[in-house]
C-alpha cells in the first residue's frame, strides 16, 4: 500500500517511516498541515496517517480539506486521548483514531483491515440488492438505478453491513462494533452521524427512502414498497 504520514514530530515520523517500509509499504511524509493537505489531495494514497496538532493547519482542517476531494481512508494518530477528541475525529470523517503512544503491531493490524476491505475478492460474491439499490461487494461499487454512488471506505462498510442484514433491525452497538471494530459510548452520536452521511448519498436524492430509524433500537435497510 502507498501511505501518507502527516506528522510534525520528526522522531515519530521516522519511526513510522521505518516500521511501515519494513513491512512493504511505500510511505511519503509531510511535516506540516499545509504540505500534508497538498500531498493528500494531489497524489493517490491507499491510506493517510494524520496527526491533530500540526503547524500550518490542524489535523481537523486537513481532514476536512481531504474530504472535499477524496474519500481516502484516514487514521488519526494523536496524543489527544480525550473522548471528545476521538469522537470529533470520527464525526469529521476519519476511519480510525489511535492515541499516542500506540502499539505498532496494532497499527499494522488496523491497516490490514483497511487493505482487506479495499482489496478485490478472489471469488465475486455478487450483488446485494435492496429495491433499486445495488451493492457490489466484490468491486466495492454502489449504484441506485443508473446512478453510481461514491462512498468512503467507512460508508461502504456501513452500507454493506446493513445490506447483509436487509430487513433486520440492527442496533447502534452492533453497527459500531462491525463498522469500526470499536466500542462507542452510548452517549455519543457517532453512529447516527455516519448513518446521516450515508443517507445523504443513498437516500436523499431519491423519492423512496431505504434506511429507516427504529427509535430506541437502531436502523434497518429495507425496500418497504416491495
TrEMBL record:
It comes from Acidovorax benzenivorans. The keyword Ribosomal protein does not apply. Residues 125-223 bind DNA. InterPro entries: CheY-like_superfamily, CusR-like, OmpR/PhoB-type_DNA-bd, Sig_transdc_resp-reg_receiver, WalR-like, WH-like_DNA-bd_sf. The keyword Transcription applies. NCBIfam families: cztR_silR_copR. Signal peptide: none annotated. Residues 125-223 form the OmpR/PhoB-type domain. CDD domains: REC_OmpR_CusR-like, trans_reg_C. Keywords: DNA-binding, Phosphoprotein, Transcription, Transcription regulation, Two-component regulatory system. This is Heavy metal response regulator transcription factor. The modification 4-aspartylphosphate is found at residue 51. Residues 2-115 form the Response regulatory domain.
Amino acid at each position: 500500500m502507498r501511505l501518507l504520514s502527516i506528522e510534525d514530530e520528526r522522531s515519530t515520523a521516522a519511526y513510522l517511516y521505518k516500521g511501515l517500509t519494513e513491512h512493504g509499504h511505500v510511505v511519503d511524509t509531510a511535516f506540516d498541515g499545509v504540505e500534508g493537505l497538498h500531498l493528500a489531495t494531489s497524489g493517490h494514497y491507499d491510506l493517510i496517517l494524520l496527526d491533530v496538532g500540526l503547524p500550518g493547519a490542524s489535523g481537523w482542517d486537513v481532514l476536512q480539506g481531504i474530504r472535499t476531494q477524496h474519500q481516502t481512508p484516514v487514521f488519526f494518530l494523536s496524543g489527544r486521548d480525550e473522548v471528545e477528541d476521538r469522537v470529533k475525529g470520527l464525526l469529521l470523517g476519519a476511519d480510525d483514531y489511535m492515541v499516542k503512544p500506540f502499539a505498532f503491531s496494532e497499527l499494522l493490524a488496523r491497516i490490514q483491515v483497511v487493505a482487506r476491505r479495499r482489496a478485490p475478492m478472489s471469488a465475486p460474491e455478487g450483488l446485494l440488492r435492496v429495491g433499486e439499490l445495488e451493492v457490489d461487494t466484490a468491486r466495492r461499487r454502489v449504484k441506485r438505478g443508473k446512478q453510481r454512488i461514491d462512498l468512503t471506505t467507512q460508508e461502504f462498510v456501513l452500507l454493506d453491513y446493513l445490506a447483509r442484514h436487509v430487513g433486520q433491525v440492527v442496533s447502534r452497538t452492533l453497527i459500531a462494533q462491525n463498522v469500526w471494530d470499536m466500542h462507542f459510548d452510548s452517549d455519543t452520536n457517532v453512529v447516527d452521524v455516519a448513518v446521516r452521511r450515508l443517507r445523504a448519498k443513498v437516500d436523499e436524492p431519491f423519492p423512496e427512502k431505504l434506511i429507516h430509524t427504529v427509535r430506541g433500537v437502531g436502523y434497518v435497510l429495507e425496500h418497504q414498497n416491495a
